[in-house]
Amino acid sequence: MFDSITIKPATLIISNESTDRGLLAEKLEEQGFYVLIAENGQVGIEIWAEKMNAIRIVITDLAMVPVDGLEVIKTIRDQQELSTYIVALTAEGVGMQQQNLLHDGPDAWMQKPVQVDQLEALLHSAKLQLRLNDCSDLLAGLAELAAERGGETVGHLQRTKRYCFVIADDLCGQCPALGLTERQVQDIAEISVLHDIGKIGLPDGLLTKRGRYSPKEYEIIKDHTIIGGNLLKKLYQRSGSVYILMGHEMAMTHHEKWAGGGYPLGLQGEEIPLAGRIMAFADVYDALLSRRPYKDPLSLYHAEHAIKEGKGSHFDPLVVESYERNRQRFVEIYNDFKDK
Ligand SMILES: [Fe+2]
Ligand SMILES: [Fe+2]
Fold first, then answer.
1. Measured in angstroms, how far is the CA atom of residue 189 from the centroid of ligand 2?
2. Where are the domains of the chain?
3. pLDDT band for position 138 (50/70/90)?
4. Using CA atoms, how far apart are residues 27 and 20, in angstroms rounded to an integer?
5. How far is the CA of 263 from the centre of ligand 2 (A)?
6. Which residues of 234-256 are buried (b: 16+ CB within 10 A; e: fewer)?
7. Do domains 10-130 and 150-336 have the same CATH topology?
8. Which residues form the catalytic set?
9. Mean pLDDT along residues 199-223
10. In sequence order, what are the beta bridge partners of 215?
């Protein structure tokens, strides 16, 4: 049961061509991988479906019969539970193939015939990427722990993550002056689950207490922003990861208010990082519609009234406008990820 030292990461090679399969298998085994081989896309999908939780890297040819590499990649992306690093092998120009697979495509491309040094470089990035993914899964697990400990639900994290995505994605298209990139849109959504990570550091029982908080208790609760913000800042200083820096900003500033008067820093307007402004809205919108130990849920009608009141005072008007353009999607997310 406990065998982390002896488990080898599994790689699946899918290709119609036996020379490619042989060369790739030899190199991967040399590098310490456990290698699985499929001679076509159909068999590749079957092997992957059976062992998907062990296979972390898939190297697939694109031009195959009867099932081609695009179909293989699509199937994996649709069904994967763990992050899977996919390398697409192609004899055509890589640039042209990339056009066909912008979204949910492979993580990397390899031109045929396979060059050993290119393969080694790719495996190096694959290992780094998988390690990063494992770290973010670990952080998401810790975030769930913090949420449960703080009387929040996992549903709250799932919903706010999606609300953040909808707003960031909309702002990326509608407000180019903000300078948001597609990568940052994705990052804002992913790292949003850490906004309340600081609740781990609050005294036992405080957040699950029934009834209203005393002013002293409320002051202690406010510290979750600083505890979480500082934790992520330290992680950022060690890793240099801009993604973690974004997490720091969200944890630190999600209770700031656009016109000032929020906590912990009392920032105003654009002094509050955009990621924090988006999180502030997503968090409050969800809180208004949710049951908490100290309050009943509001109807959508009343929640929207509160949001209107908060436009330009609590919330960044641009973020509220983004919500107004996407009301229906918010309703769908709320219904799809309702608390049990
Ligand atoms: Fe919070
Ligand atoms: Fe929250």
1. 13
2. 10-130, 150-336
3. confident
4. 11
5. 14
6. ebbeeeebebbbbbbbbbbbbbb
7. no
8. 199
9. 88
10. none
Strand ranges inside 93-201, DSSP E = 108-111
Ligand nearest to the CA of 147: 2
**Burial of residue 44, with CB atoms counted within 10 A of its CB: 0-12 exposed, 13-18 middle, 19 or more buried:** buried
Please report where in the chains the tokens 């042209």 appear, as a residue: 96
Work out the mean pLDDT of the chain and round it to a whole number: 90
Q: Which ligand is nearest to the CA of 160?
A: 2
d(CA 302, CA 296): 12
Give tens-digit pLDDT for 297-313. 999 999 999 999 999 99
The CA distance from 154 to 147, in Å, is: 7
Place of tokens 């929640």: 303
92, two tokens? 């055509």
**Which-ligand-closest: CA of 224?**
1
CA of 164 to the centre of ligand 1 (A): 15
CA of 153 relative to ligand 1 center, distance in Å: 13
**Superfamily of domain 10-130 in the CATH hierarchy:** Response regulator (3.40.50.2300)
Instruction: Specify the amino acid at residue 159.
Output: R
Distance CA 46, CA 189 (A): 32
**Taking Cα atoms as reference points, which of 7, 35, 41, 40 lies closest to residue 23?**
35
CATH number listed for the domain at residues 150-336: 1.10.3210.10
Token readout for 252 is 């630190």
Ligand 2 centroid, distance to 195 Cα (angstroms): 7
Ligand number nearest to the C-alpha of 151:
2
Whether 1 has a pLDDT exceeding 70, the answer reads no
With beta carbons less than 8 A apart as the criterion, state whether 183 and 213 touch: no
Q: How far is the CA of 83 from the centre of ligand 2 (A)?
A: 26
